[in-house]
Amino acid sequence: SMVNGIYWFPNPNATRYLFSTSAFNLKKGEGYYQNTYLLINSFNVGVTDNFSIGGGFELLSTFGTLASGNFQPIFFITPKVGFKVTENFHAGGGILYASIPDFDNGDERLEGGLAYGIGTLGSIEHNFTGGIGWGFFDGDFSNQPFITFSGMTRVSKKAALITENWLGPDNGNYYGVFSYGVRFFGETISVDLAFINNSDIAEEIIIGIPYVDFVVKF
Predict the structure, then answer these.
(1) What is the pTM of this model?
(2) Who is most buried in 12, 16, 182, 209, counting CB within 10 A?
């Protein structure tokens, strides 16, 4: 698109915020690699225009357990569907499945994740997403849902403001975590610099816990 006579390339990372996803989907054949904190690595690929699948692993558990001779990495799988409902509204859903070694019980693993639905209002340059999902652990689902609401707005050719926020069940109540930051990007890469915060974190670190990731689209 042209903005004040200057070409703005399309947002290269419209399908997700920090951890959570929007209802926009990768096109068939598109994909990206994401690295978070230099430790968590993930890949996602568009199988069709409406279905993508991804997965990833965590480096410390991968190399630590490999060196000990008992290879048990933390890994996760993330299938997702997304559909255009109207010009400015997309809907979707998916599953986050994670497998974590149970270091107290030998070769056993802990399995859990989140099954969710989301709706995104707006364009790939300016949007808001609301979502709801139920966590599961060893086959049992949570009684109360997780709730997310996130947003992104592009403020210049190479930068956008971004926020991602979670409400999680906590013994009949809800526990909130919010984030705010800036996304810098080129045509095929983006870098997020953000802070994760809530009232408990702010007591120790007033601006929140720094968050860093980068995404390379292919």
Answers:
(1) 0.90
(2) 16
